[in-house]
Request: fold
Amino acid sequence: MQRTRTILFALLPSLLLFACALVGSGLGEDVPPQKWDKRRGPVVPHENFPKDCSLCHEGGSWNRIRADFRFDHEKEAGLKLEGAHAQAECLRCHNDRGPVERFAQRGCAGCHEDVHQGHQGKSCADCHNQSNWEVRTAIADHNRTRFPLVGAHASADCAACHKGAPVGRFDHADIRCEACHEPGQSPNHRTQGWVTDCQRCHIPTTWTGAGFNHSTWPLQGVHRQIDCAQCHQNGVFAGTPNQCIDCHQSDYNSTANPNHQTAGFGTDCQSCHSANGWVPANFNHNRFYPLTGAHTALACVQCHAGGVYDGTPTTCYGCHQGDYRTAQPPHSASGFPTTCQSCHNTSTWSGANFSHPDFPINSGPHASFDCNQCHTVPGVYTSFSCTVCHAAGPTNNDHDRVNGYVYNSNACYQCHPNGTEDD
Reply:
């Protein structure tokens, strides 16, 4: 057995070229490494082999090698067979076509035809390994080029960009998007002149969801979600109007609550509405009448009856005449002015702050009195002096000095500013 191995080792330098011919022989599948198939042609010359055929062959058939025959290729030949080489037929490399050293010096090209025709260089190991011809590092390798494969490009077939790929040609491809991709039709990119710089709007993942820089009219709110054709009709993009009313004239005309036309509302939609939706509208009422207190909770029609907005009163009395006429105490009979805000605020009618100008009662015990405690006759709120309720003080110099004023309120308050006898 040792002798056989030695002889086989001696024959290794003579048998490589035949493998190249066998690759293209069309046999399809290999037989086990140490077998022989007559379709391969003549066997390796045995002149220098041992005469004892039984060292390698089984009896009864020349094409059966002994089951216990083993040849340590790394030990005997100094070359470890790995991957697909470990399973290849011996005759792939060891044949009668010439010394193996001559072809081994050429590396992979010594046995394998360069289908790339030299365009990918001579170092096959840069892309291939010994297991199969599949290039498993294509994406990583492509990252070292001018066009890294990302998104959908990572799953594309090589031939989609490299037209010579079926015949092993991977020459430099044009990296411009338009070199591989036809301009879109919806909208028509050619008509608009959008035939280059696809990356300005698109990303490598998908064509949909294009991020066009709508700098001429920033897309905000619901405008970001609508299809281009809703504003750019018939595929026309140049000269598209950029005012709200240009697209929303029908919305303006069809408003009913309130009717914008009859109300005399302007067509500057953005003064009340936002791009997020028609509601809620933010009408700036301060331009006409600031809404405060209870007015902020009112529906528009409570002041603008019948949908009429032009000419609506801006004074309290203009809307609250009925409240003035039914108020207690009776405002009209008592001579109260119609400037409601002089006593009331916009939050509520109750808790009116009457200044009582003819008879100061803002301090002292009078401040806590109910109106009816002094105004005992219903509906009568005419002015009167302190002496109506209080008898004149004891006779003394101080009171004598004010007798000429009939003890009117102003005179009394000169000494009694808080409305009490102890002042």
